[in-house]
Amino acid sequence: MAFTRATGKHRRPSRLTRKSASMAGVAALATTGVIGGLASPALAADAAHAVQDTGLTEAIVIGDSLADEIAAQADQQKRAAAKAEAARKAEAERKAEAKRKAQAKAEAEARAKKEREERAAKERAARAAERKRLNSYTLPVAGSVVTTGYKTGGNLWSSGSHSGVDFRAASGSSVVSVGAGTVVEAGWGGAYGNNIVIRMNDGTYTQYGHLSSIGVSVGQAVTSGQQIGVSGSTGNSTGPHLHFEARTSPEYGSDMDPVAYLRAHGVNV
Ligand SMILES: [Zn+2]
Fold first, then answer.
1. Angle (nearest 5°) at CA 133 between 246 and 121
2. Is residue 157, in this structure, part of any structural domain at all?
3. What phi and psi values does residue 154 have, to the nearest 5 degrees?
4. How confident is the model at residue 12, as a pLDDT?
5. 201: CA distance to ligand 1 center in Å?
6. What is the whole-number distance in angstroms between the Cα of residue 249 and the centre of ligand 1?
7. Is residue 141 in a domain?
8. Which of 158, 209, 240, 254 has the CB geometry, 3.0–4.6 Å to 192, for a possible disulfide?
C-alpha cells in the first residue's frame, strides 16, 4: 500500500514523497473508481488534503523564495542607496571642506598682500620723509630773523659791503646746518671769528660766523637742522649775532644772496 503515512499527520512531506503520494492517490482513484471503496475514507481524505496542501505549500515555497529574493534585492538596493547617499555626503563634505580651505587660503593671501602693501607704503613714506628731511633746508637759528641784509654798505666790512646776512641770535643760541652736507672748514676765520663752512649736498656752500664755540670738525657729515655750534660775537663783530653766507665755492668772495638761497630751498625767511 502506498499510503503508509499515519492519518492526521500534517508534517510537510518532501517534494518527491508528495509527488509520489499524489500519483498514488490518482492511481488509487482510477483503480477503485470510488473513494468510499478505499480501505480508509480518512486516508483518502488525507490524500486529497495532501495534494491540496502540497500545491499550496509549493505556492508558498515559490512565494517565499520570491519574497526572499525581492527582500534581498530591496535590501541590496537599500544598502546601495545608503552607500550612494554616504558617498554623496562624503563628496559634499569634501567639497565643502575644499571650499572652506580655498576661502581660508584666499583670505590669508589677501591679508598677506594687504600687509605687504601696507609695509611697502610705510617704507615708501619713511624713505620719502627721510629724503625730505635730508633735502630740506632750515633757518640756521630757529625762529630768527635777518637784522642786517645782504650787500648792505658800510665801513664795517672789508669789502665795503656785507657778503652775507646777519641773523638775530642771543649769545649761546644753537646754530644748525641749514641743510645736509659735509664740513670743509671749522676754526678761526679772522674777521669771521670762529667759523664753519659746509659743502652742501647740492654743491653749494654755507658759512656760519662769529660763533662762541664750534661743535663739528672738518670732514664731518651733517644733516639739516643738526647743531654745528653756538652763536657768539667772535671776530669782527659789534655784538652777538650769526653771520651767515651762501657761496658757490668755499672761498670768501663767491657769495650769493643768502635770503634768496634759503627761499629757493623752501625756507621761510
Ligand atoms: Zn654779518
1. 150
2. yes
3. 150, 160
4. 55
5. 24
6. 18
7. no
8. 209
Tell whether 152 is covered by a domain. Answer: yes
41-135 and 15-32 helices cross at what angle (nearest 10)?
150
Q: Smallest Cα–Cα separation from 210: which of 245, 260, 161, 159? A: 245
258 CA distance to ligand 1 middle (Å): 11
> 148: helix, coil or strand?
strand
Domain range for 191: 146-264
**C-alpha span between 26 and 20 (Å, rounded):** 10
Whole-number pLDDT of residue 25 = 44
* Catalytic residue (one of 162, 241, 243, 265): 241
Q: What is the CATH number of the domain that holds 169?
A: 2.70.70.10
Burial class (CB in 10 A: 0-12, 13-18, 19+), 29: middle
Distance of CA 180 from the midpoint of ligand 1 (Å):
22
Count of domains forming the chain = 2
Residue type for position 46? D
**Does 150 lie in the same domain as 45?**
no
Quick check: 59 pLDDT over 70?
A: no
**153-164 pLDDT, tens digit each:** 866 666 668 999
Question: What would the pLDDT profile of 224-235 be if each residue is shown by its tens digit?
Answer: 999 999 999 999
Q: What is the pLDDT, as a whole number, of residue 102?
A: 95
Model confidence at 56, pLDDT cuts 50, 70, 90, reads low
Q: Is 162 a catalytic residue?
A: no
257 lies in a domain? yes
Grid look-up 654798505 returns: 153
**How is residue 65 written as a grid cell?**
523564495
